[in-house]
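Closing statement on the glycine sub-project.
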Amino acid sequence: MGITVLVVGSGGREHVICWRILRDRPDAKIYCAPGNGGIGTIATRVPIDATAIEDLVQWAKTQRPDLVIVGPEEPSALGLVDQLLSEDIKTFGPSAAAAQLEASKAWTSSLLEREGIPIPKTAIFDDAANAHGYIDSRDNLVVVKADGLALGKGVLVCSNVEEAHSAVDLLLVKRKFGDAGSPIVIQDRCFGPELSVFALCAGTDFRLLGSARDYKRAYDGNKGPNTGGMGAYTPVTDARPQLIQEIADRVIGPTLEATARAGAPFTGILYAGIMLTPNGPVVIEFNVRLGDPEAQVILTTSSGDFVSAIESAIDGNLEKVDVAPNGSAAVCVVLASNGYPNDYVKGHEIIGLDDLPNGALAFHAGTETISGSVYTAGGRVLSVVGHSDNIDSAKRLAYQAARQITFKGVHMRTDIATSELSTLTDTNGERLK
Ligand code: GLY
């Protein structure tokens, strides 16, 4: 009998994780908590929310899966991995202490600054008057960040001093995100294309899984509000081997050394959100998981056994890891509900999911299946991925497949993987879920 795996989460990232497990281990039995309409076609859904830690632990104690893979950051930050490991259940993801790399921007920026890892100029405040004074003393535009997880709304990219003062008040005076909003981290705003770099980590050792570029703004031309991601592609032309090596040597390696020294060794996937500035790569954020929709292009363009790689990381020995980019190209286009990331209507039937062109795959996010039909159930509904040996034909395939799928109010960007846009990304890690 094959391996039994519980995947925690419900987005496109978790769908592609399930897909990848089955690609590498066709006899695997997958459970997904809570999953979505598409995941339900390849895994058994478990009706437990990804943040219901006690319920997930109880389920795992009873069902004893061979492996648990935690998709999103929140369960890790809430201690799911620690609790499952203490029950002797093999679990992949960071401890709550290591998840601070995403869950506490103050902890992380202090750590990076101490270690000389390149980040924008940073100051931390829990007092609004001091923060206002600091803003008035700076010549630069700034980004104001809530310390904790704030549903992806805690990074405020300010275009002038007034916006910066309002951001301080929003977080420290109006306490928009409660305790998650304090302290705040104020960083100088920097500009340049962004790059998401992914590393499989076991303490201080790591293997690069690949890099991708995602598109956070809702509309073409990188306009409109930030979203969880409207598309992604890999490989990225400006991610030359020398640059990736520099990011590994100056960012990922030293960060893992520093977290281990801080008593929070990191096991899991580290996602370095890098801005390629004229002065070199700068860390604008860390995430403690695969990106979404980056996972949909990274996991479909790599060779090797993903499950073995994960087990190796849990066992603390990456020597036999064989997962690496296979040289092919993938472009992902997200189909969203009209209005996302603000208000939108759910419950529209999705048509055209069958008979996608060869080389195209549709991963589900906000979907539900009712009596064999699939309906929209969230803001980001589907990620449609085209694969080929080059970006241009992967893009053509992705859009051909994306246009074949329809639902009322469907919205997609039409410029994913358009190269001239790469210089326009300046979101400084701001995003919505
Ligand atoms: N694509 C951005 C994220 O996963 O957070």
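The two ends are 37 Å apart (CA to CA). With this model delivered, the sub-project is considered complete and its resources will be redirected to Aim 3.
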